[in-house]
Every structure is written in structure tokens, then in C-alpha cells.
Amino acid sequence: MKSHLNIIVTGQVQGVFFRGATKAVADQLGIKGQISNEPDGSVYIEAEGDKVALEMFLDWCKEGPEHAKVISVERHEGELKNYRNFEVVKKRL
Known about the structure:
Blueprint: E1 2-12, H1 18-29, E2 32-37, E3 43-50, H2 51-63, E4 69-78, E5 86-89
């Protein structure tokens, strides 16, 4: 059964290839959704997948790529949007 999570990652998570690395991990785990940088310096992720894959994905988000310094990871359950892939959003409107 698929779940949808809205995730906010704070810390040094912009300018460290966080979005690209997160996409690679999401693709490996079969997670669908999107990721974007926020004006406040955080990263916002919408992720959909089975619960086991989402837990593994969240564990990775707590570490991030090599140069990231993650301070916190907030998660909130949301409505399924049935994403077809995982996309890096350059700028949200």
C-alpha cells in the first residue's frame, strides 16, 4: 500500500547536491514525487511509495549527501498524488 509524505529537511542542504542525490536514492528505492529548494534554505520533498521504502528514504534524508549537514527532518502524511517519477523542481511557482 502506497503512502504520501510531505518532508521538510533543514540545515546545510542547499548547494551540496542534496536534490540530485535525493533523486538518485528515490529512483533506487522506487519512490515517486518531487524535491525543491525553499527560500528559507530548507528542502521540501513530496514522496510516495510503500512504507518500507519511505522509511529507508527518510533514514537517508537524515544523513543526506557527503557535504550536507542535516539539522532536522519533519514528516507529515498527505494525500496520494500518484506521481509517475521523482523530479527535481528548479523553481516552484
